[in-house]
Design the sequence.
């Protein structure tokens, strides 16, 4: 993995991690599923318009519709629905740990489903990253409240996203990344509509805060970050997963500056361990 790929991976983590801060700001105005429902539908339509009017991509054919629908179901509909159900049952600090579990799930699923033997250095990198993220989140965990049901929802959330990642990596896609991303986001958003209607409870306020939050969630997160993620997955799904370790660290930084949430020495020690874990995971490719 060359320097360009590493920098793109760091950019992905920085943009992807900004979603939680932007979402917290947007949730001051509207319900969670409403915020994300609109985000995915608008992002999907925008990417599809770019794909077919600018890039002149072709439409999906045959089994590609099924593959895109399954990917959207796993990566958007189930992932987001379980996440929203989970955060309604657990404190925000617990939710910030969820991203860190992805590499472990991805590694195990890759080994079992794709016949790929996970190297000992990769397991070590996963361990260092998990310990680092856990240490960074330690003060939040101490003061968090969570129900067994909420933790189960968060587990299902990360499991769905990880399965979606492995599923994507196991398909021989012939469509462009923009078309794939556009369709999976749009189809996932369509499949989420019934859940959004069923969970609607209160009026929504479509003010400036809502529009700014939606813009950030759509362009930097759903368009740029997701396309970067798909690019990294095509290079190496296991290696790409290590960049997810950086997401909570960026998340803490955004929370501190944008939401006035504290950063402690645990955060800095955790960051150091995450960096070591990333180095261990990337060392062999960096030396080539």
Sequence:
């Amino acid at each position: 993995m060359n320097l360009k790929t590493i920098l793109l991976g760091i950019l992905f983590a920085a943009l992807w991690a900004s979603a939680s801060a932007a979402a917290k700001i947007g949730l001051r105005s509207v319900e969670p599923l409403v915020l994300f429902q609109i985000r995915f539908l608008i992002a999907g339509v925008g990417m599809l318009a770019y794909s077919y009017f600018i890039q002149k991509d072709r439409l999906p054919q045959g089994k590609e519709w099924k593959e895109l629908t399954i990917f959207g179901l796993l990566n958007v509909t189930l992932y987001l629905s379980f996440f929203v159900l989970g955060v309604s049952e657990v404190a925000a600090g617990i939710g910030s740990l969820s991203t860190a579990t992805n590499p472990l799930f991805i590694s195990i699923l890759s080994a079992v489903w794709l016949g790929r033997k996970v190297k000992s250095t990769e397991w070590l990198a996963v361990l260092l990253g998990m310990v680092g993220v856990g240490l960074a989140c330690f003060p939040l965990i101490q003061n968090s409240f969570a129900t067994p049901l909420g933790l189960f929802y968060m587990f299902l959330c990360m499991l769905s996203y990880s399965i979606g990642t492995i599923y994507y990596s196991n398909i021989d896609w012939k469509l462009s990344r923009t078309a794939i991303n556009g369709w999976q986001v749009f189809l996932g958003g369509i499949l989420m509509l019934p859940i959004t209607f069923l969970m609607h409870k209160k009026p929504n306020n479509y003010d400036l805060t809502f529009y700014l939050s939606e813009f950030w969630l759509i362009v930097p997160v759903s368009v740029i970050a997701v396309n970067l993620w798909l690019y990294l997955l095509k290079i190496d799904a296991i290696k790409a997963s290590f960049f997810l370790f950086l997401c909570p660290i960026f998340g803490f930084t955004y929370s501190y500056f944008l939401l006035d949430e504290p950063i402690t020495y645990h955060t800095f020690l955790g960051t150091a361990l995450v960096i070591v874990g990333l180095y261990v995971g990337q060392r062999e490719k960096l030396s080539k």
